[in-house]
Design a protein that fits this description.
Strand 2 and strand 3 form a beta hairpin. Helix 2 packs across helix 3. The chain has a 3-stranded antiparallel beta sheet. It is mostly helical and 125 residues long. It is 62% helix and 11% strand. The longest helix is centred in the middle third of the chain and has 17 residues.
Length: 125
């Protein structure tokens, strides 16, 4: 598997837009981010540039415009972020995370049913 670089929270906002539909120009990315963030165009351009340097975004040059597209799948980045979180906070051990989550969160009957199904599936491997 490709080594997935660390993506900041702000960079995730850019990537969500590009993963949802690509390619996107930096102007299109800015317009969509304007709806929920108060970032200046230079901020968005900086984030896009960082993502290109990290190898998460690729681009095509069309005249003066650049169209950006993801080089990594969202699922790959989510898995890497999950592993990083687990390592940072729980020393890589899943059990304390699950115990903490189960003690603190309210789960519906459907959630519990799905968790049981997943655990049964895992124990059958």
């Amino acid at each position: 598997m490709t080594k997935v670089p660390r993506i900041s929270e702000a960079e995730w906002e850019v990537m969500k837009i590009v993963w949802a539909q690509s390619p996107k120009t930096s102007m299109q990315i800015m317009e969509q981010l304007e709806e929920r963030m108060s970032w200046k165009p230079t901020t968005v351009k900086t984030l896009v540039s960082r993502l290109v340097k990290k190898g998460v975004l690729g681009f095509h040059k069309e005249g003066k415009n650049y169209s950006y597209f993801p080089l990594l799948l969202e699922e790959e980045c989510l898995q890497a972020e999950s592993r990083s979180f687990l390592n940072r906070l729980y020393g890589g051990s899943l059990q304390p995370l699950l115990v903490s989550f189960l003690k603190e969160e309210r789960l519906s009957k459907e959630d519990i049913k799905e968790l049981r199904r997943l655990l049964d599936e895992k124990s059958g491997e």
